[in-house]
Amino acid sequence: YRRLHARETRLSEFNQTEREAMLGSYTKVLFVRDPFHRLIATFLQGMGISPSFSSFVQEVLDSGMHNDSVAWKPLVSLCRPCLIQYDYVVMFGFLRQELGHLLRRAGLPAGSLPPELSDSQVLWTYRWLSEQMFSELSALQKKQLSHLYRWDLAAFPFPSSFLSD
């Protein structure tokens, strides 16, 4: 493809025929995570310079869809699930189970997964963190976050997300 080797060519720059031909031979996997958990992880990793979670969220809300950070941009705007037909959509919380299946499909031993916390431990920790962080936000911030991530919440099942309340 004429632009295949061009630096940072976006998939949307190819026409439909080129996209289908290019992506047809790949196994396409989309990893999704509750947007509120993504915000918490970004904040905890120090990617925001704010001293509090509430002020970090306000920075995210102020930048909205115009931010350049993939760390907190809505997934639907990054991964284009309407444009790309993914073979697998793997949700955070089911990673070990789904990664084992994907490794077997790729011909690799499923036992090659690194030992980590069980998904239930991770989910419990994020539930606790979510409760703590969510309580720091104003009612307006909660409403604005739900609006910012409305398409992610509609496209993917996050039944226990604080943003879908």
From TrEMBL:
Its main location: Golgi. This is Carbohydrate sulfotransferase. Its EC number is 2.8.2.-. It is a single-pass type II membrane protein. GO terms for cellular component: Golgi membrane. It is an enzyme of class 2 (transferase). Belongs to the sulfotransferase 2 family. It comes from Rhadina sibilatrix. One of its GO terms (molecular function) is sulfotransferase activity. InterPro entries: Carb_sulfotrans_8-10, Sulfotransferase.
